[in-house]
Sequence to fold (105 residues):
Amino acid sequence: MITSGEGKYKVFIEEIKNGDDLIYILGGGERSHIGGVVICEPGIKTQSIRLKGHYDDIVLQPIAEAACKKYNTKVVAIGGVHVDNASQEEIALLVRNCKELVKCI
Fold:
């Protein structure tokens, strides 16, 4: 498991190998959830699913694309991060912490 941030702004990704392919689960904040799904396959346009009222695909996409490029395999990234009544500054901090996770893939 890879983590970034502290307290209620701490986020994580967990990697699961499925044969030659990879699954990444993103969570953190005050409550992890499923807010989006991103599927990445070498040479194919990335596919994103955004669940109603969520924007987690925005931080899931870089995770899936980085792993797909690095390992040249199919990748699914799923999950979400939630902080109750988050301000714009808190959202920006969560996004930065998620971007730090990408550097560790």
In short: The radius of gyration is 13 Å. The domain at 2-103 is CATH 3.30.230 (Ribosomal Protein S5; domain 2). The CA atoms of residues 61 and 74 lie 13 Å apart.
